[in-house]
Amino acid sequence: SSGGPIVTDLLWCGKPDLPAHALPPYRCCPPMSPTEPINFTFPDPSAPLRTRRPVHEVGAAYMAKYARAVALMKALNKSDPRSFYQQANIHCAYCTGAYRQVGRPELPVQIHFSWLFFPFHRAYLYFFERIAAKLLGEPDFAMPFWSWDVPEGMRIPKEFADAASPLYDPIRNPRHAPPAVVDLDYMDVEKNYPDEKQIQHNLWVMYKQMISNAPLPSLFHGQPYRAGDAEKPGAGTVEIYPHNSMHGWTGDIARPNHEDMGVYYSAGRDPIFYPHHANIDRLWEAWRRIGAARGDRRQADFTDPDWLASSFLFYDEEARLVRVTVRDVLDMGRLRYGYGGVGLPWLSARP
Ligand code: C2O
Fold this sequence. Notes:
Elements: E1 8-13, E2 38-39, E3 50-52, H1 55-58, H2 60-75, H3 84-93, E4 99-101, E5 104-108, H4 117-136, H5 195-212, H6 217-220, H7 237-250, H8 264-267, H9 273-293, H10 305-309, E6 311-315, E7 321-325, H11 332-335, E8 337-339
Parallel strand pairs: 2-7, 3-8
Antiparallel strand pairs: 1-4, 4-5, 6-7
Helix pairs in contact: 2-4, 4-9, 5-7, 7-9
The structure holds CU-O-CU linkage (C2O).
CU-O-CU linkage (C2O) is lined by residues 91, 95, 112, 121, 243, 247, 267, 277.
């Protein structure tokens, strides 16, 4: 029988289902918590709003601070759930079948290709950012985002391409190092467009995936996925392009599984994963706002109780295990963060 929210079984984290020729490590279960998970509680409503701003705009000092946060995460003991190693593992565990549905050990929890895609990644980044803030000793620190949807952001930011930086990952496609312009609907084939044409093409892709093809929650978010269902019922527009395509564009096509960014199990090992996903998260909010501004009640989030009650497990900045529901992450204001510093130029790029 199927129905009800997807709930992760915290006692069952097993062997991930890895592709052939995967790179070590081969396990991705986060450390066991000595205590039961606590339920998520919202930050103080009077806490300052943390504004995430684009990498290309925040300046060198801010990016150096972000690099320091990542270096501090990398320096934590690997058994610490807040370490960079374990943060990457969380993503691996949620997309390789290491985690199972509560009461249904035969069914994996898969947070891609369904309506769990946006809320899972929002919660994941929320805790990543809180951990970074704690390690920096700056509770109001906001992570920068990689705004590949606006012309100024359509390259890998140079800070991530500097081999001496903690933000660097050598396992990427060397052809796509800066100044290569991103290809938002990349499918493993080089378009070889001149930059101007590629930029225009990218703006069209954005319009198509955010507006033309996404007038309903099932089209934007992805298909319903309930307890007892098989994984991957269907992805939303933005998950496929530009989300998946930018993973594939960044990863190393010469490796069997296009590591690190181009395959689920290793994507979180690349520090660019997090600013990439902050942009995805920003696009979710943009989609809702565009719908609301048009008074279009269909272009809005699901209200399905199974979606709202689905839940995930994360470690917070104090290394406490927390259960977060989809309902908890719907309002960025209540999470005390927002996005700024960049517009939506593709809104006028209707093909
Ligand atoms: Cu969980 Cu960008 O993938």
